């Protein structure tokens, strides 16, 4: 059985290896994080994220954890953060203003998607500097999640009329409309 997380409403978790140690990092709907170095048997408080907002997604790649924030209420966010020490501390980074809901690592870059817009962003500098993708997502769907696998990034729309939307990108920069997801579902995560 797994251990209890510190107090908070945790929304995302990522796994990676830091200095040879398998590490899990969870982000919350505020600025708190938690980390485990024993497969989730016990958890400790991680470093605070730079601001208090809905940190929707965290991922791991190239020895770095990266988190993106959605914002609060109807106020979008420009917040991203990265950690090179397994979530013990976080460094603030800036994204274009949007309601960021997902981040993934693949093809040598971090890629983030935002809900209700065609905006996506990418970082080739381990989450430190973010650029807006010149060919954004194919629609203004409620993009809820992004993953990388089989040489491509895939994003899905999660709610309401957009719940059947998907998009893909081979490089995280140029996006194409994907296949239609089955209807009558609210897809929230792709892995």
Write up what this structure looks like:
- By secondary structure, the protein is mainly β.
- Helices cover 0% and strands 47% of the residues.
- The protein has strands at residues 10-18, 21-28, 33-36, 44-45, 55-61, 64-69, 77-83, 91-98, 100-106, 109-114, 120-123, 131-132, 143-149, 152-157, 166-169, 176-177.
- A 4-stranded antiparallel sheet has the order 1-2-3-4, with no helix packed on it. It has a 4-stranded antiparallel sheet with strand order 5-6-7-8, with no helix packed on it.
- Strand 10 and strand 11 (120-123) form a beta hairpin.
- It starts with 9 loop residues before the first strand and ends in a 14-residue tail after the last strand.
- Give the fraction of residues assigned to helices: under 10%
Number of strands: 16
Radius of gyration: 16 Å
Query: What's the total helix number?
Result: 0
Supply the helix-strand structural class. Answer: mainly beta
Strand content: over 45%
Unreliable residue runs: none
**What does the main sheet amount to?**
4 strands, antiparallel
How would you sum up the global shape?
globular
> SSE order, as H and E?
EEEEEEEEEEEEEEEE
What kind of assembly state do the chains in view correspond to?
A: single chain
> What distance lies between the first and last C-alpha atoms, to the nearest angstrom?
23 Å
**Strand order across the biggest sheet?**
1-2-3-4
Mean pLDDT over all positions: 88
């Amino acid at each position: 059985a797994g251990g209890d997380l510190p107090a908070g409403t945790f929304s995302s978790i990522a796994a990676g290896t830091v200095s040879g140690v398998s590490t899990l990092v969870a982000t919350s709907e505020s600025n708190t994080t938690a980390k485990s170095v024993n497969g989730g048997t016990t958890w400790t408080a991680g470093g605070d994220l730079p601001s208090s907002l809905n940190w929707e997604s965290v991922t791991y790649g190239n020895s770095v954890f990266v988190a993106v924030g959605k914002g609060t209420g109807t106020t979008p966010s420009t917040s991203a953060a990265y950690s090179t020490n397994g979530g013990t501390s976080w460094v603030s980074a800036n994204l274009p203003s949007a309601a960021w809901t997902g981040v993934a690592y693949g093809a040598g870059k971090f890629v983030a998607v935002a809900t209700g817009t065609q905006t996506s962003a990418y970082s080739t500098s381990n989450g430190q500097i973010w650029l807006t993708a010149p060919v954004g997502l194919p629609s203004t769907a409620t993009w809820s999640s992004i993953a990388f696998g089989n040489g491509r990034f895939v994003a899905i729309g999660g709610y309401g009329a957009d719940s059947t939307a998907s998009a893909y990108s081979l490089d995280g920069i140029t996006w194409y409309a994907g296949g239609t997801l089955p209807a009558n579902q609210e897809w929230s995560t792709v892995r």
